[in-house]
Amino acid sequence: MSDLRLDPLTGRWIVVSQERGERPFAFQPRSLPVEGEPGRPCPFCAGAVDADLPPTLTLSIPGSDWSVRVVPNRYPAFQGTTAMAVTNLGPVFTQAPGSGIHEVLIIGPEHRAQWADLADEHSGLVMAGIARRMEDHAGTPGLRYSQAIVNAGREAGASLEHPHGQLLGMPFVPREITDEQAGFARFAGNCLLCTTLDAEEAAGHRVVYADDDVMVVCPYWSGTPFEMLAIPRNHCPHLYEAGVPDLLAMGRGLQRGLASLRTRLGDVAYNVVFHSAPYKAAGDFHWHAHVLPKVTTRAGFELGTGVFINVVAPEDAAAALRASAKAA
């Protein structure tokens, strides 16, 4: 029998239906090549970062030329400093300028070194790069929110094979974040994710990785197979205000979780999505990261209702990922 579970962050219902996971070809490995621009060398490899895209941030491990770089996106979704003024062109036609900042986070100089391959110090630098740029975005007039993402694989939206992420500073707060803010507001008393940490630690069977500073779980309300939620133990609304130990811990926790995912499922595509409080948000929030493997396809029901069907119970997914970590 299927199981309905409520996601307290967004207020959405999730369907856990393990029977549907028994269908042939339920999971999809990466199948589409990430080609980039034909005839053009990778612009993110060591020594090849575009000369006309000067880095906005460079971080290095001692002894290396560079370990993490942030450069302007050549094809930005948000650009410019025009104030967000809404214009109504008709009864249902409303628009505003797409001002903001769009940057590329180059995770490392090696072409095929995924986050799962990074040493702890290097993964901590990735997190430090995200935090530094978010802090700069927060000080930019007209911007209200920064979204950091990592897309790995064509199915996850990556247009280049070289491991990289995106940093987008925008003049509005997106719906996913306002839904989560409402989830924190509905959860009277303690912080929603602080309570999640305590509850998942007590339950134990959905924990993928945990140490003194971070916990990675397949959350009770997982909407997709092998979904993970990484939560720093130290309560802080804004990623860019997190302390160095918390940033190092998040990088380490994501590396462990992604390495276990690859060992268990192979080279699947995935998204890592970081959620932080809007710059001037009032109310409670606890920054965190979602890991969303692309192993199934959203079909008509999901697209028509917004209700996800998960064919792997998160308890089983976490057990498989823990076993993979031990076997690695």
Strand order of the largest sheet: 3-4-7-9-8-13-14-12-11-10
What's the shape? globular
Note the quaternary state here. Answer: single chain
User: Main sheet?
Assistant: 10 strands, antiparallel
- The amount of helix comes to 25-40%
> Beta fraction of the residues?
15-25%
CATH fold assignment: HIT family, subunit A
Can you give a write-up of this model?
This protein is an alpha+beta fold and about 325 residues long. It has one domain: HIT family, subunit A (2-Layer Sandwich), CATH 3.30.428.10. The chain is about 25% helix and about 20% strand. It has six helices and 15 strands. It has helices at about 120-140, 175-185, 190-205, 245-265, 300-305, 315-325; strands spanning about 5, 15, 55-60, 70, 85-90, 95, 100-105, 145-150, 165-170, 205-210, 215, 230, 270-275, 290-295, 310. The chain has a ten-stranded antiparallel sheet with strand order 3-4-7-9-8-13-14-12-11-10, with helices on both faces. Strands 1-2-15 form a three-stranded mixed sheet. A two-stranded antiparallel ribbon has the order 5-6. Helix 1 (about 120-140) crosses helix 4 and helix 4 crosses helix 6. The radius of gyration is 20 Å and the shape is globular.
